[in-house]
Design a protein that fits this description.
With 215 residues, this protein is mostly helical. 71% of the residues lie in helices and 5% in strands. It contains nine helices and two strands. The protein has helices at residues 5-33, 38-79, 86-102, 105-118, 124-136, 140-153, 164-179, 200-203, 209-212; strands spanning 185-189, 195-199. The protein has a two-stranded antiparallel sheet with strand order 1-2. A hairpin with a 5-residue loop joins strand 1 (185-189) and strand 2 (195-199). Helix 1 runs antiparallel to helix 2 (38-79). The protein is rod-shaped and about 95 Å long.
Length: 215
């Protein structure tokens, strides 16, 4: 089973926890040696905190870039325009336009309701022509419903948004934005499965030996 975005974030949090403990022990040894002033020790702690916070920021920036790149690749795939005979495409457009114009009001309404219920349409040209014909007949409310479903439900104009892989990457990006919002906080999963938020500034001041053993 592939790693979830949460698994990756929790594993990274655990690595920061370990690094924080290494830094804390080093600083405590300096302090216990008695060879350094309190100001120097405080500066070392501050430097350690800032270094870990930068590491968190860089990691989440890379993660977001990765997810955005994945979304961009999927979008590009859908945006590729198929090569076809321009004359045939124009003929198809004209035939669709003529067919819709020849429909009676009830038949046109049925065509619109069919799209609203199923999202099925031969092409974007047909979808646009359907809306244009509805509006030309004074059926603006129905045309608005078709437009709304096309944009919000079926993603007819942005088909990549209906792609499960794109949707997963989009959800992962939202989670990365939430988890990475505070550079002073990392998230780790304990052995009992409970996820806890840990503050980097606290980790360099407290004795984390017992805490490490829980992950």
């Amino acid at each position: 089973m592939a790693q979830t975005i949460e698994d990756r974030i929790h594993q990274f949090g655990a690595s920061i926890l370990q690094e924080a403990e290494t830094r804390r022990q080093m600083i405590n040894k300096l302090q216990m040696s008695g060879s350094y002033t309190p100001d120097f020790i405080a500066k070392e702690r501050k430097t350690g905190i800032e270094a870990l916070q930068k590491e968190v920021g860089d990691w989440f920036a890379d993660l977001k870039k990765e997810l955005q790149g994945k979304m961009g690749q999927i979008e590009s795939k859908y945006r590729q325009t198929p090569v076809g005979d321009p004359s045939a495409q124009l003929l198809a457009f004209q035939r669709t336009q003529a067919r819709l114009k020849a429909m009676g009001k009830e038949e046109l309404e049925a065509e619109a309701l069919k799209y609203i219920q199923t999202g099925t349409v031969a092409s974007l040209d047909e979808l646009d022509l359907l809306q244009a014909e509805l509006r030309s007949r004074g059926m603006d409310n129905l045309a608005d419903r078709v437009r709304l479903e096309a944009q919000e439900r079926y993603h007819s104009y942005e088909p990549w948004k209906a792609d499960p892989e794109y949707q997963q990457a989009e959800q992962d990006l939202q989670k990365a934005n939430v988890y990475g919002a505070d550079l002073n906080t990392v998230y780790v999963k304990a052995k009992d499965g409970v996820v806890e938020a840990r503050l980097i500034s606290d980790l360099l001041h407290m004795n984390t030996d017992d805490v490490i053993g829980r992950w």
